[in-house]
């Protein structure tokens, strides 16, 4: 079966302001936000995109939604190649893909009532006004919000959980086929997150949505995504079934990421994080592995050559020169419950 999302060699570099010395030397520094991404997402599949802040997760989501243009590479969503979309074709594309924002308090215009916010995507997409009321009523039922009086309220008159449901309803009102959710519950209280995540999971199953969840939260990804891709400094370093990636990580960065998860009890102890001191810098990416400066097991080849993303038996993909060592069986990693 053909992939619904097909990405090959996708890269994005942002120019940065040059200092006087760089201008005189003719240098053009850039931030390598995303580098040579290759992945597919099947129709109806839910994928988690995991990594620390600054690794390129959000830029990847914006590239898939054509909110920013790639420096190089290609992306196809359904039957549409993103590179050639403009005009009416781009407007039709917007109906099939939607974004769930991280902060529901900033995602809605504070001066516009909820009903108007929900109608705005329908207006922009050219949906006849006669259909607006029925579509809004249906989408409110789907996100489990009762009471049409809420449509007359302003965002400040609603709770965080209600606002996130409204943001989700606004993304679903056009009946999209692909959803990009960027940290969809990070701004909510822990007591509210469970209900929102259960709702999103139910909607994916009932509507057959293809979805990618962007997060640095292992528990969230583990709960909603059947497959997880791990990013570091703009590159994919590991990709596979979520339970396998979390319980038996292969890449040194994935192991460090999971080792950083806080333990649920103070009495428990753990070994030091498997990292060398250092800070990632997307402006200074060499020819080798992006993780080489922090990797505790790096070898000479890691500096000289960038490791390819190799597919292992069982479908997992890992980008590491130490594949023979990395593929040795490891004991499962125990995490606290997802919720």
From TrEMBL:
Cellular location(s): Cell inner membrane
Give the PROSITE patterns listed for this entry. ABC_TRANSPORTER_1 (PS00211), ABC_TRANSPORTER_2 (PS50893)
Query: Any idea which UniProt keywords this protein has?
Result: ATP-binding, Nucleotide-binding, Transport
Instruction: Write down the membrane topology.
Output: Peripheral membrane protein
Molecular-function GO terms, alphabetical:
ATP binding
Q: Where is the signal peptide?
A: none
Give the top-rank taxon of the lineage listed in the UniProt record for this protein: Bacteria
- InterPro entries according to UniProt: AAA+_ATPase, ABC_transp_ATP-bind, ABC_transporter-like_ATP-bd, ABC_transporter-like_CS, Oligopep_ABC_C, P-loop_NTPase
Enumerate the Pfam families for this protein. Answer: ABC_tran, oligo_HPY
Principal place of residence: membrane
User: NCBIfam families annotated for this entry?
Assistant: oligo_HPY
Regarding protein family, the annotation reads: Belongs to the ABC transporter superfamily.
Q: What is this protein called?
A: ATP-binding cassette domain-containing protein
Q: Which organism is it from?
A: Alsobacter ponti
Lineage at the top is: Bacteria, Pseudomonadati, Pseudomonadota, Alphaproteobacteria, Hyphomicrobiales
